[in-house]
Design brief:
By secondary structure, this protein is of the alpha+beta class. It folds into two domains: 2-189, no CATH class; 198-236, no CATH class. Helix content is 15%, strand content 34%. It has helices at residues 179-189, 198-204, 220-236; strands at residues 2-5, 11-19, 31-37, 45-47, 55-57, 62-68, 71-76, 79-84, 90-94, 100-106, 115-119, 123-130, 162-173. Strands 1-2-13-10-9-4-5 form a seven-stranded antiparallel beta sheet, with helices on one face. The radius of gyration is 23 Å and the shape is globular. The protein starts with a strand and ends with a helix.
Amino acid sequence: MRLFCSAGQPSVRILHTFVVAHDVDQVRIKEIALRIPHSLGDGVRRFGTDSGPVVETQRPDARLAHRDPSHWTISAGTEAVATGAHSPGWGAALSPDRRRGLLVAVRNFWEEAPKALTMGGREARVSLWHGDNDERLSFRRYSPVLQREEYEGIYSDGLGVAKTTEIHLSFWSGEDGGDSVAAAADALLKPLHVRVPPAWYDRCEVAGGGLAPADAASHPREEQMMAELLAWMERHVG
């Protein structure tokens, strides 16, 4: 796990890497989670949604769960508070007087389902993988029979597989936060990217040369073919 902190900034960027190093034939995983202790107590809980308004609840056991990439549920105990399709993946815990708070934001939350985020009274729990009921995560081979004709080796299982998840923590005090919490989460999950004109890349040969910028005026047929190819990839690949 790597922690990134900046001087004067009340936030921490976490890169959590899970590596499969266990006996994949014997071990099944119920949950992979990161627990973040805090002393905020049983105050207000807030969660971002894909429909606009922030969901707010007084329940200290509130949890956001993405069981699959197209459905999320915010629940408190056994009660469903809200549902939707694609959660932005953040939750906030406020102290009872609303003057202190912790924001937890997870990048690619719905894209990497199943995931869950629980904002408890004494800790925030980021479930990097969380199965339903008796569901378990397995890295064993799909069959004990080796398929030599398919060039499979004896270690053709999940041993050595690694997955990194990016998590952001942000702390504040002295105010409720209000809409600024959602704005802070959006800034953490959607960082700024600097872009330069494609012609600059071509001119300085930063990629070794041969990367010409789009020029529909000079090459209309070729540019149309490229546009259709990229549109197809966006629809089917993402």
